[in-house]
Amino acid sequence: MIMHESVHCPMMNSKSREWRVFLLASSRREVGYEGQSRRPRIGPLPRPRCVRRRISKVAVVCFVCRSLPEGDRSKERLNPGIRQKQYGKMNIGPLTGIKVVEIGVALAGPYCAMTLGDYGASVIKIERVGVGDDSRHWYPHFEGNVGHYFASANRNKKSIALDLKSPEGLAVARRLIAQADVVVENYRYGALARAGLDYESLAAANPRLIYCSISGFGASGPRVTEPANDLFMQAFSGGMSLTGEPDSSPIRMGLSVADLGAGLFATIAILMALQARNRTGLGQRVDTSLLEGQVAMLSYHLTQFFASGVPPVPGGSGSSVGVPYQAFKALDEWLVIAVFNERMWADFCQAVERPAWKDDPRFANNDSRLLHRPLLVAWIAEIIATRPVSHWQKLLSRFNVPNSPVFKIDEVVNDPQVQARDMIVEVEDSRGGIVRMAGLPIKMAATPGRIELPAPRLGEHTASLLQELGYDLDDIRQMAAAGAIGLHLPDDRNDEFANA
């Protein structure tokens, strides 16, 4: 039984919105309905008698922004604890109901798909039989042989192992994608098209499909077929030319910024395409690349070059935005001081007991301080070196001057603020081991994200997903024997597939 009513969405400005009504039956099976746009009526939705009689729980959320309507449910929108108490185990994340098929390796594609899964999407990861994602095998491993790299980008997913070069494996992939909302892939440009998984043929069977490709150089241009990875792209895009100390050898940024950046841009692209589909009813192909992500992230370095005509060069821990704006060696450890406006400069001069610097024409404003950077940095370094980091932290913080020790990873994970924001979490894997990793960076009051699944074993869900697609046990045994699929079964299902 489905009900439909129009209400006012408090999170959106438009007066005409689509709403989805989720009904949770006693079987805990969720169904959804996309309502047509109508004039709003402020107030909670009534429940018809048929719904009250047959459906145990009802949740109403905006189809566009997933907020709850105004009226009697406004407090629930602001307090997720109330909503969860009322609706029990019903999980309505912002992307609940969205089905994603990922065909990805390493980081950019898997990170994108994991982000979608963290906020409610159902993600199925297609992997190679017997091998899986290359990052499964990268040292070090957690207890239970879970690779650290794979674990970092593959939670909240189910794994199905398919040989896409076999007709049977390819047919399974096409059936999965025919039911999907989104495909995420980060193979070399054209690789999936050659395998028969191109956008055009898949969209013919599923016009609502959003097909997101992440490649090294994008879907056009003279380098379209060339391979690329994070280190390559940090060099090619110019980012490495900005990193390190002046006159030093090129230095790679510690974070995999090209891979992670492309994964996040792809996530944004998918969300925009889903929003466009809400209006048109049709999916589309979207593509991004490591190159485009890195050139976009050059940001003010590009405009600085176009404004001055001078290519930026490495500045160590410093920056062209101001002085002091870098790391200084204290008596014991390194301390970052980040002054970026005149108020902070005046407060800094007071903190280090150099009030005369405020009136010195060489340091009167940011431009003059940048012009005399070497002299000013040398003077500041002499002062900071006389006391430990803890001394300067207390003093500078009292004057509201931004400063921070240069923490190591073991210090970051134990920081009270990091812990208060649940940014380090423990996830139990399928063998009972504990995997510690980064938590969810976006907190949503009414539709929070969740970590519900650990990084999967290779082919852990092959059998169950095939059964959901309508394959019987004989079909699965035959495909496994032929090498078209790979199975990783829990102990309690080994007998069921003994002949596989």
Mind telling me the CATH class of the largest domain? Alpha Beta
Terminal residue distance: 41 Å
Q: Count of DSSP helices?
A: 20
- Beta-strand content: 15-25%
CATH homologous superfamily identity of the largest domain:
Crotonobetainyl-coa:carnitine coa-transferase, domain 1
Defining key terms:
seven-stranded mixed beta sheet; 500 residues; 20 helices; single chain; formyl-coa transferase, domain 3; 3 domains
Provide a concise account of the structure shown:
By secondary structure, this protein is an alpha/beta fold. It has 20 helices and 17 strands.
Explained architecture:
The chain has 500 residues and is an alpha/beta fold. It contains 20 helices and 17 strands. It has helices spanning 49-54, 74-78, 80-87, 108-118, 148-153, 167-178, 191-194, 199-205, 230-236, 257-280, 290-298, 300-308, 342-351, 366-371, 373-384, 389-398, 409-412, 416-420, 462-468, 473-481, and strands spanning 19-24, 30-31, 57-62, 99-103, 122-128, 141-142, 146-147, 158-162, 182-185, 210-215, 285-289, 325-329, 334-338, 403-405, 424-428, 434-438, 485-486. The strands form 5 sheets. The chain has a 7-stranded mixed beta sheet with strand order 11-10-9-4-5-8-17, with helices on both faces. It has a 3-stranded antiparallel beta sheet with strand order 2-1-3, with no helix packed on it. Mean pLDDT is 82; it is low at 1-90.
